[in-house]
Amino acid sequence: WTARSAPPEEAQRLSPTDTTGISMAGEVSKYAYPSQTLAHDLSCSSKPYARELAAAVHAVQLSAVASRLVAPSVSSASNKIQKADLSPVTVADFAVQAIVLRHIREVFHEDLICAEETSADLQTNAVLLERVVEAVRAVHPEATPEEVCEWIDYGDFRGHKERYWTLDPVDGTKGFLRGQQYAICLALLVDGEVVVGVEGCPNLAPTEDSYPDASHATTPGALFYAAKAQGAYSYPMPPPDSPAYQQLPRCAPIRLKLPEVFAEGADVRFCESVEAAHSSHTDAAKVAEKLGITQGPLRMDSQAKYCCMARGDAQILLRLPGGLTGGDYRENIWDQASGSLILSEAGGAVCDQSGRALDFSAGYKLFNNRGVVAA
């Protein structure tokens, strides 16, 4: 990372209001300042969606603080529940959603949001609600249980509008529970297209060299972001209680640009889900054999896979929940929106398993697509 130190007078000038256009006076925690540096720079741009990108980056960085603070205790039974589809949901899922959606609605009052979680389970589980509120207070010390539930439910939109946001607060919850990869995934959709995508990957080290031992408490994570026709970038995310976080220098974001010449055969690596239930490992192996790929797959949870591909760690992603025949499963938009934009802006390509572009205009699921293929 190339660092450029902020002059003392600039550090004093930057305030919560500067980065977002709103004031959080009276409830800014000790974790607020470092996340403002990048957001402030982005908000000063005259490019399209600069304000939206800045707000999204700020929200994701702040919520990543809460996710990392609760990570050591999240495997406790009182810190998680199981949803009707048998997927786990944790304190971090709820806390991250509350923090992100509060911030987006503060900045963009009229915008609707389609997010994964609701507060319904919290309102019947006092112990879990208490844990969630405690996590949110790491960022917003004055938050009440009623406010936290309200913020979570800002994400109850399930229709389709010309403009709305989508959020997966902890994409890859099983990875999060294992202390491995997960991502906080936020995107803005306008006229059925993803125009802003931000992913916070607290356990994904800034360079491939330290993967997969990236979940150690002192290891920095990485933030990835993109805006339509403006390229994709990465930025470091130190752990919240580390000296690096408290003294975060002004770092120049790294532009992600894939080579124009595609790798072949032995130089190609697959990227796929850890869980075989999420994508057929058998069918992926068949494709790899056909293509002459000899390297073992890079397996990880969440849309962090898109980010790894955007920086060149792997060259092909297959997500085939129904195998090569497709099946009836349809992806939720929050599981693909931010990552697909980041990879596309880095020079990659994303489509479904029939070669059609992902269609985000049909509602909260990709009803017009089966599976996902990226390269």
UniProtKB/TrEMBL annotation:
EC number: 3.1.3.7
Family note: Belongs to the inositol monophosphatase superfamily.
Organism, as annotated: Eutreptiella gymnastica
Enzyme class name: hydrolase
Name of the molecule in the record: 3'(2'),5'-bisphosphate nucleotidase
Record keywords: Hydrolase, Magnesium, Metal-binding
Gene Ontology BP terms: phosphatidylinositol phosphate biosynthetic process; sulfate assimilation
Transmembrane segments: none
SUPFAM superfamilies, A to Z: Carbohydrate phosphatase
Single GO term (MF): 3'(2'),5'-bisphosphate nucleotidase activity
InterPro entries in UniProt: DPNP, Inositol_monoP_metal-BS, Inositol_monoP_superfamily, Inositol_monophosphatase-like, Inositol_monophosphatase_CS
Cofactor field: Mg(2+)
Binding-site residues, Mg(2+): E116, D168, D171, D335
Leader sequence segment: none
Keyword Membrane: no
Catalytic reaction list: adenosine 3',5'-bisphosphate + H2O = AMP + phosphate; adenosine 2',5'-bisphosphate + H2O = AMP + phosphate; 3'-phosphoadenylyl sulfate + H2O = adenosine 5'-phosphosulfate + phosphate
Matches recorded under Pfam families: Inositol_P
